[in-house]
Amino acid sequence: xxxxxxxxxxxxxxxxxxxxxxxxxxxxxxxxxxxxxxxxxxxxxxxxxxxxxxxxxxxxxxxxxxxxxxxxxxxxxxxxxxxxxxxxxxxxxxxxxxxxxxxxxxxxxxxxxxxxxxxxxxxxxxxxxxxxxxxxxxxxxxxxxxxxxxxxxxxxxxxxxxxxxxxxxxxxxxxxxxxxxxxxxxxxxxxxxxxxxxxxxxxxxxxxxxxxxxxxxxxxxxxxxxxxxxxxxxxxxxxxxxxxxxxxxxxxxxxxxxxxxxxxxxxxxxxxxxxxxxxxxxxxxxxxxxxxxxxxxxxxxxxxxxxxxxxxxxxxxxxxxxxxxx
Length: 326
Hints:
Blueprint: H1 2-26, E1 33-37, H2 44-60, E2 64-68, H3 75-82, E3 90-94, H4 97-104, E4 116-131, H5 140-149, E5 155-158, H6 164-176, E6 181-184, H7 188-197, E7 202-206, H8 207-215, E8 220-224, E9 250-258, H9 263-277, H10 280-287, E10 291-293, H11 298-318
Parallel strand pairs: 1-2, 1-3, 5-6, 5-7
Antiparallel strand pairs: 3-9, 4-7, 4-8, 4-9, 4-10
C-alpha cells in the first residue's frame, strides 16, 4: 500500500511539474531583466541591445538593463551569463566570437553548447572590405592580383587574433589563394587609424565604424562581405560577386539563455523579442547599423549556431591559428 502511494505521488509530481513551469511562463516577467553584452558600452552591440531591449521591455512592462561586461575577447561577459540563475531574467547578447572562441581557446570557463540555450537570432549584418585610398586597387580582383604579384607584402589589420574580422579576411585569403600579413590590434578603432595613415593596406570592418571614413574619402570600400549588397552602399559589390563565389561572412547578434532555463520561458522570450523586431521604428534604427532583423526560432537559431561553430573550426584550422596559453 505504501509503495502504491509512493508511485502515485511520483506520477502526480510528474504531471504537476510541467504545469508549474508553464504557469511560471504565464507570469513572466515579474521584475526587471538583465541582458549581458560582453562588449564595451556605446559600441554597436550595446546600442543594438538597447534598441531591441527597450521595445521588448515596453511589450513586457518590465525594465531590461543592458549590462556591459567587456574583456578577454568576450569571454568575461559570456562566463558571467553562463553561471547566472537560469530563470530567464538574465540573457546574453552574443556575436560570432561566441562560436569562434571554442576553436581557438583550449580552456574556457564555460561550455558554449552545454551552458547556453540559443533563444533567437536578433539581426545580421555584413562587413565592409576597405583599403587605404593610396593603394592602387578598386576591387577585390585588383587586390588579389596585387597580392599574387607581391606575396606576403600586403598587410591587413583586425581587432585581434581570431576576431571575426580577422577570420573573415583569412577566409578570403584561403579562397583567393594569396598571402597577406596579419597585423592584430587591440580593437577595431586603432586598426582603422593605422589603415587611414597607411600603416596597413586593408581591413574588414563593421559598416557602422568604417562608413563615416568612406564617406569622407579617408577609406575606399571595395566590397561587402555578405551574400547581398548593403542597402547603405547599393553600388558596392559583394566579395562573391567579385570573383570569389560562395564567400559569405558577416556579423550577427544573438540572444542566449543560461543552460537550464525553462523551455516555456525561452519560447516566450523568443516570441516577445520577435514581436519587438517587427516594430517599424526598431527596424529603422537597425537600418542605421546596416543590420537586418531576423527573429529566428530557438530551433533554427540552434542549428545556425552549430553550423557557425563547425565553419569557424575549419577556418581556424586552415589558418593555423594557435592561441594556446592565451
